[in-house]
Amino acid sequence: EADIYQTPRYLVIGTGKKITLECSQTMGHDKMYWYQQDPGMELHLIHYSYGVNSTEKGDLSSESTVSRIRTEHFPLTLESARPSHTSQYLCASSNGPMMNGYTFGSGTRLTVV
Amino acid sequence: DQQVKQNSPSLSVQEGRISILNCDYTNSMFDYFLWYKKYPAEGPTFLISISSIKDKNEDGRFTVFLNKSAKHLSLHIVPSQPGDSAVYFCAAPKGKLIFGQGTTLQVKP
């Protein structure tokens, strides 16, 4: 049973639309992350948060923005979607030792046409 | 500069045989390494980890070996099963987790 939820699972949207990808976790984890992954490529960190009202950009530059108003909720927003944003977006959370790794959601497959 | 590399994009093995997935790294300061498994249209799931002070960690059919002098780790799956067919990522922490490019494993019945 998933403890971290992403919606929608799949999204096809037109260029220029504003979209928000939802991510929620029920584990009370302080740390949350957004990764972007294209087929055959590594996962790239685009945003992370270590707690409420704390957000940072990751290693890969992204036109998306995030917010962390509640511990359990870490949505990602694209103000104006473009075909170059087509990708899989993965949300993750963690708590405690890094050796336990992250718990990932099922991801959102975004296609911008 | 990619600090965690998986140079084999794909691997195909027969059911029941051994699968060996490889990973190289450049940063000798990593404290531990993790392996994740990912099915299409799903998020990665944690598989096994190894501390940098160890050279082997085993969990059922999965064993990870670490060769610090070569900056190389490998994941062994014995025996391989069709359900193991997935993309496998190695990862290491540098503040946040850094992932390799992944290796797609296909286990043929």
Characterize the structure shown.
The complex is a heterodimer of chains A (113) and B (109). Helices cover 0% and strands 48% of the residues of chain A. With 113 residues, chain A is mostly beta strands. The model of chain A has no long low-confidence stretch (mean pLDDT 92). Chain A contains no helices and eleven strands. In chain A, the strands form two sheets. In chain A, strands 2, 4, 5, 6, 9, 10 and 11 form a seven-stranded mixed beta sheet that branches. In chain A, strands 1-3-8-7 form a four-stranded antiparallel beta sheet, with no helix packed on it. In chain A, a hairpin with an 8-residue loop joins β9 and β10. Chain B is mostly beta strands and 109 residues long. Helix content of chain B is 0%, strand content 58%. Chain B has strands at 4-5, 10-14, 19-25, 32-38, 45-51, 56-59, 62-67, 72-77, 86-94, 96-99, 103-108. In chain B, strands 2, 4, 5, 9, 10 and 11 form a six-stranded mixed beta sheet that branches. In chain B, strands 1-3-8-7-6 form a five-stranded antiparallel beta sheet, with no helix packed on it. Classes of the chains: A mainly beta (113), B mainly beta (109). Chains A and B meet through β9 and β10 of A and β4, β5, β9 and β10 of B.
Give the key terms.
heterodimer; A: 113 residues; mainly beta; seven-stranded mixed sheet; four-stranded antiparallel sheet; 0% helix; globular; B: 109 residues; six-stranded mixed sheet; five-stranded antiparallel sheet; 11 strands
Major sheet attributes of chain B: 6 strands, mixed
Alpha-carbon distance between the termini of chain B? 38 Å
Per DSSP E runs of 2 or more residues, the count of β-strands of chain A stands at: 11
Strand content of chain A: over 45%
How many separate helices of chain A? 0
Biggest chain pair interface:
A-B, 27 and 25 residues
Helix fraction of chain B, binned, reads under 10%
H/E order of the elements of chain A? EEEEEEEEEEE
Q: What low-confidence regions of chain A span 5 or more consecutive residues with pLDDT below 50? A: none
Counting copies of identical and different chains, the oligomeric state is heterodimer
Q: Treating each run of at least 4 consecutive H or I residues as one helix, how many helices of chain B? A: 0
Shape of chain A: globular
Instruction: State the share of residues found in helices of chain A, binned by percent.
Output: under 10%
Q: State the total count of DSSP E strands of chain B.
A: 11
* Class inferred from helices and paired strands of chain B: mainly beta
CA(first)-CA(last) distance of chain A: 33 Å
Order of helices and strands of chain B: EEEEEEEEEEE
The radius of gyration computed from the alpha-carbon positions of chain B, rounded to a whole number of angstroms, is 13 Å
Mean pLDDT of chain B: 94
How large a portion of the residues of chain B is in β-strands, by DSSP E?
over 45%
Would you tell me the structural class of the helices and strands of chain A?
Answer: mainly beta
